[in-house]
Amino acid sequence: GVEVGPQPQGVARADVLDKMRKIVKHGLDFVQLLNEGKEFPPCTIEVFKIMEKVDYPRNKNGEITAIIHPKLQDQDWQPLKNGDPLFLTLDGEVIPYQGNCTVYPTFINEAAYYEKKQAFVKTEKIKLTAKHLRSSVS
Questions:
Q1: How do the domains of the chain map onto residue ranges?
Q2: pLDDT tens digits for 110-120?
Q3: pTM of the predicted model, to two decimals?
Q4: Disulfide: which of 33, 40, 66, 95 matches 89 by Cβ 3.0-4.6 Å?
């Protein structure tokens, strides 16, 4: 499956549709070239691995007590370091990120995830190496 986004629920965006078409085309081109016997050299790419889902701060009744800090809003895939603003309470208090490593948040403040108690997802940037690849079909 391919998920391209973000985009609000029930909204069709031309830019997101264009990205989806391009990624599907690249995938199909790859399959065709592999089936034709093209060899692909080893390569290394950076990817983001999910570490954990992070909920909003809540009170004892389960009610949200802080919102995403404005400096974090719309900063998907950008580095978040220890001490950076994370949440903002309704009283104006900044709740900073407290972590021992830089993370890369994504799905920040997505409406579809409120009911799932998810303010964002913490990811880490890692490198994956693919070995030489060629079809075994002759």
A1: 1-38, 43-130
A2: 887 888 999 99
A3: 0.78
A4: 66
